Amino acid sequence: MTWEPAAHLNCPALLKKFHAQERSALHPTTIKRAISKTIKRPINKGKPSIPKTTSSASMPTIWLAPSAADILKIPILLNTPINTPHRDEWSCLLATAEYCTSVYNDTDAEGPPDGFQWLEGYQYSAMPPPSSEALAGCSCVGNCMMSGEYACQCILECVESQAPYDASGHMQHRPEQGVVYECNPNCSCAKNCGMKVAQHGRKVALQIFRCGGQKGWGVRALENIPQGTFVSKYAGEMMPSKLADWQAQTCDGAFLFSLDYFGESSTSGMSYVIDAKKFGNIARFFNHSCDPNMACYAMFLTTQTAEIHDLAFFTTRDVTAGEELTFSYFGNAAVGSKGKVSKAAGTVCLCGSAKCQKFVLMGGMA
Ligand SMILES: [Zn+2]
Ligand SMILES: [Zn+2]
Ligand SMILES: [Zn+2]
User: Fold this and answer.
1) Ligand 2 center to 135 CA (angstroms)
2) Per-residue pLDDT for 2 more than 60?
3) Nearest ligand by distance to the CA of 196
4) Which of 51, 97, 200, 351 is a Cys-bridge partner for 101, taking CB atoms 3.0 to 4.6 Å apart?
5) What percent of the chain has pLDDT over 90?
6) Domain boundaries, the chain
7) HSE on the CB side for 24, CA within 13 Å?
8) Ligand 3: distance of its center to the CA of 134 in Å?
9) CA 200–ligand 1 middle distance (angstroms)
């Protein structure tokens, strides 16, 4: 059913769903229903046959080729573009995406952004990579969530000394409550500790799609995603804000995200941004909405250096398959705002929500 090597099928949840759909598609009841809509065709051409049942005994045994809609569903199992111009370029780009990621464009001939390279981590420019050697780790055994009250040093660092996640790994805190600590490589707990969620990467299948009109690209869910689910980090090129400011004089700063959780009062006096224009992951394609279904959290995953925190998106309500994933470019009070250091400029908001403020600031936000 697919032209891709089995090794590339890295999405167990969707594979399971696909096989379930396949079984259901071959169920006699489904077929009987389909017969009324499709041209009946004899099977005896070496194709698999469907056993007759009493209910379908009066009908000819048939084999149904996948419908066009079914064919479109198959490649979403893979990191691959479907029905998309520049298919080969997208295939190369998505080869290193961390989970099921497809692209769909039936709107125009636009290809991937010029010179863009997929990156799930950070590229450091004009700054050294932060060291994780000095990270304070906890000394828990197994799952820190079971360590008992006040036992885990990492949980004690979190808001109100409470674990940010529930037992299913869903975010319980709001972004404005404080920075989220996860356990780190210097902790002695297990790899599957409940305080290690975002660091394990994206576990939801997403699709980059062409929105139509002036919206450009967007990202939609390919499965139902419960509230509080980790969606993605904001990956890209990390650099000092001063360099980004300078670049923004001449370049488009729309993909800059300020790491300003700790404000201007950081001890070193330095501040940094993540620029996803040239390097980045799926988060680069998230659109703004005035009524978003995700929020961006400041997190410490790989460092605990105040001005070099991570940014991670979690759903703020249940999201249904097919829905676009969005966040507010205005930021969440305490968390970095997108486009902050770009040239002060505004653009008409195209989010289309009932709460739309009609205008998105792309620069100059404090
Ligand atoms: Zn832990
Ligand atoms: Zn611990
Ligand atoms: Zn820990």
Assistant:
1) 13
2) no
3) 1
4) 97
5) 44
6) 6-78, 114-204+226-366
7) 7
8) 14
9) 13
Which ligand neighbours the alpha carbon of 143 most closely?
Answer: 1
Q: Which fold has domain 114-204+226-366?
A: Beta-clip-like (2.170.270)
Residue 89: predicted pLDDT: 92
Angle between helices 12-25 and 28-35 (to 10 degrees): 60
Two tokens, residue 104? 């769909």
Distance from the alpha carbon of residue 11 to the mean position of ligand 2, in angstroms: 29
Give the number of the ligand closest to the Cα of residue 184: 3
In the numeric block, the tokens 């998505």 are attached to 94
pLDDT score, position 80: 65
- Could you report the per-residue pLDDT of 285-300, keeping only the tens digit for each? 999 998 999 999 999 9
Output the CA 314–ligand 3 centroid distance in Å: 21
**Which ligand sits closest to the CA of 301?**
3
Q: What is the pLDDT of residues 84-141, one digit of tens each?
A: 899 899 999 999 999 999 999 988 999 999 999 999 999 999 898 888 777 889 999 9
CA of 313 from ligand 2 middle (Å) equals 23
The CA-based angle 318-199-190, given to 5 degrees, is: 110
Q: Which amino acid is at 216?
A: G
Listed in sequence order, the residues at least 6 apart from 11 whose beta carbon sits closer than 8 Å to its beta carbon are 77, 78, 99, 100, 205
Distance 181 CA to ligand 3 centre (A): 9
pLDDT value at residue 260: 77
Number of neighbours of residue 88 by Cβ within 10 angstroms:
9
The backbone torsions φ and ψ at residue 27, rounded to the nearest 5 degrees and listed phi first, read -70, 135
**Residue that has been written with the tokens 């932060």 in this structure:** 130
At residue 81, the 3 state secondary structure works out as strand
Q: Who has greater pLDDT, 12 or 179?
A: 179
